[in-house]
Write a structure and sequence with these properties.
With about 250 residues, the protein is of the alpha/beta class. Helix content is about 50%, strand content about 15%.
């Protein structure tokens, strides 16, 4: 009996479903995102016919992560299914738009059961393709090489600028104050200092700085109508630094 595996991936745990060639659920399980969870998955596959000569294929909605890397390292075929494809396939089985981790694992397994060939990219890339004339292909190759060299130069220039910025910023007396805030490193601190300066009298009140940075909303009142909107006139560079800062705390 041919068996197919679907894994609904989450940050801390994963739902696993095995279905047979008729689409019937064979077993379901809940595993952790750790070595013990991987061992449980491999044991589950082995108990249902998985072997080196005929491994059970596994479908999951991501191509990254330790679970994907660990399962792929065992030699089992892994299929990274686009979440949009899973959403569309889910609608084939229910019109209520109900969604659960276990149900998505079953959907993933059934996608392999019915449409595995559609998602096997290795076959598509390894097949015969239409070709340009040899000299045209060589020209495209040189163009790609030139673009890579430009990208490499830009990356090295950005790294050099970052190092120089950090060196100069740490010499400023306000550097220690700015980097004392949780989530503010040297790069973010340097941007904040560059945009607001070190003149203590520049902003008379905290709300003035909030408005300059764009974090203070705009309130419009007319009669009984009050509308609070996002401030669009602001220092975009300082606002971007605030966005990065907020994402680290």
């Amino acid at each position: 009996m041919k068996v197919f595996c679907g894994i609904d991936w989450a940050e801390n745990h994963h739902d696993v479903a095995l279905v047979d060639e008729r689409g019937q659920l064979v077993v379901k399980s809940h595993i952790g995102d750790d070595a013990a969870g991987l061992a449980t998955l491999l044991t589950l596959l082995a108990e249902h016919g998985d072997n080196p000569t005929d491994p059970i294929p596994v479908a999951i909605e991501t191509s990254r992560g330790l679970l994907v890397a660990s399962v792929r390292a065992t030699g089992r075929p892994m299929y990274a299914i686009n979440p949009l494809a899973v959403s569309r396939d889910r609608e084939r089985h229910t019109v209520a738009r109900a969604k659960s981790d276990h149900a998505d694992a079953v959907v993933l397994a059934n996608i392999l059961r019915t449409d595995a060939d559609v998602h096997q990219l290795h076959t598509a890339f390894a097949g015969e393709q239409m070709r340009q004339l040899p000299r045209v292909e060589a020209a495209f190759g040189e163009q790609a090489r030139a673009l890579v060299l430009q990208l490499d130069a830009a990356c090295r220039a950005a790294e050099h600028l970052a190092a120089a910025t950090e060196e100069i910023f740490t010499e400023h007396p306000d550097a220690a104050i700015l980097t004392s805030f949780p989530g503010v490193g040297t790069q973010t601190g340097a941007r904040i200092l560059a945009e607001i300066g070190d003149d203590r009298s520049r902003f008379a009140e905290a709300r003035n700085l909030r408005a300059y940075a764009g974090s203070a909303p705009v309130t419009r009142a007319s009669g009984k109508s009050i509308v609070v909107m996002q401030r669009r006139i602001k220092n975009q560079r300082l606002a971007a630094a605030g966005y990065v800062w907020a994402g680290t705390v």
